[in-house]
Amino acid sequence: MKEYLVTGGTSFIASHVVKALLDLGHFEKLVNPDTSGTRNLMNSCEKSRNTVKRIVLTSSSTSVRYCYDATKSSPLNESHWSDLDYCTRFKIWYGYAKTLGEKEAWSIAAEMNLDLVVVIPSFCIGPILSPEPTSSPLILLSIIKGAGGEYTNFRGGFVHIEDVAAAQIIAMEEPKASGRIICSSSSVAHWSEIIEMLRPKYPLYPFETKCGSEEGRDMPHSLDTTKIRELGLAPFKSLAKMFDDCIKCFQDKGLL
Ligand SMILES: NC(=O)c1ccc[n+]([C@@H]2O[C@H](COP(=O)([O-])OP(=O)(O)OC[C@H]3O[C@@H](n4cnc5c(N)ncnc54)[C@H](OP(=O)(O)O)[C@@H]3O)[C@@H](O)[C@H]2O)c1
Question: Where is the NAD-dependent epimerase/dehydratase domain (predicted)?
């Protein structure tokens, strides 16, 4: 029987991966993430190379999309990398860290000759399995409540969390899966468009009304998802579905 080791099992993404694995009847081991990071984890995998067949790492579309020619080069695919100078210029430290982190993982994998597959989701939205929201759902909750005074001047891809979990399972199990794999619905949208879509459906919530003045995060672009679709992922769930599922979950948990 195959066993899966999922790090950060309490996180938004990993909790859905665990749920998807259990739904498929798999057992998994949960471990707390090693504070020494990717290298330590990959070192352990190297030592257990007889039993560890593959490592699946979650990166982010922020390691792909932040570059000066994003619009011209779109659709961006697995060959594209964010530009560290661009991230520095616009103080996009999350994208900077994700880009460096993913590159480091690839270099360690090459050094140790490990089978690494990297899933690259865009902004993940959908129901949360933990009692309290973290990461991306927390950002959405704040926007719906109008809690921060403004929304980030951000345009990006969005993806249903269940599609991300399904892509992670493909990355783990499909022998043909290799390299980087972008996972994002076909919709790239600005927060203003998301708010416009949601406000008439949820008129009781205030929603942020003011757009922030950040630069460099709203570049029009698109993401090529041919690779994950050819590996067998079912059609991506729509923008409306991912946000409705997330808001329903907030309501059910009394967060809204
Ligand atoms: N959510 C998104 O929209 C999105 C999109 C693309 C990529 N990603 C990537 O997917 C991964 C998981 O994201 P998520 O949204 O599921 O995150 P999340 O819900 O915020 O959870 C973060 C996880 O990372 C652990 N962690 C945080 N700081 C750590 C540290 N210094 N050392 C070790 N572990 C640490 C946390 O452990 P504790 O619970 O113990 O603190 C938790 O398990 C991240 O790499 C993120 O960049 C997320």
Answer: 32-178
Distance 8 CA to ligand 1 centre (A): 7
Select from 5, 7, 10, 11 the residue to mutate for testing ligand 1; criterion: most ligand atoms less than 8 Å from CB.
11
224: left (phi over 0), alpha (psi -120 to 50) or beta: beta
> What domains can you pick out in the chain, each with its CATH number?
3-252 (3.40.50.720)
Around ligand 1, the residues with Cβ closer than 6 Å are 8, 10-14, 33, 35, 58, 60, 98, 121, 123-124, 134-136
Distance in angstroms (rounded) separating the CA atoms of residues 48 and 176: 22
Is pTM beyond 0.90? Reply is yes
Cis ω before 133 (30° cut-off from 0): no
Per-residue pLDDT of the chain (256 residues), as tens digits, is 678 888 877 799 999 998 998 888 876 575 443 335 778 888 888 898 888 999 999 999 999 999 999 999 999 999 999 999 999 999 999 999 899 889 989 999 999 999 999 999 999 999 999 999 999 999 999 999 999 999 999 999 999 999 999 999 999 999 999 999 999 998 899 999 999 999 999 999 999 999 999 999 999 999 999 999 999 999 999 999 999 999 999 999 999 9
Cα 11 to averaged position of ligand 1 atoms, centre (Å):
6
Residue found by looking up tokens 């460099």 in the block:
216
Contact present, 102 and 118 (Cβ < 8 Å): yes
- Residues belonging to the active site: 98
* Alpha carbon distance 144, 180 (integer Å): 33
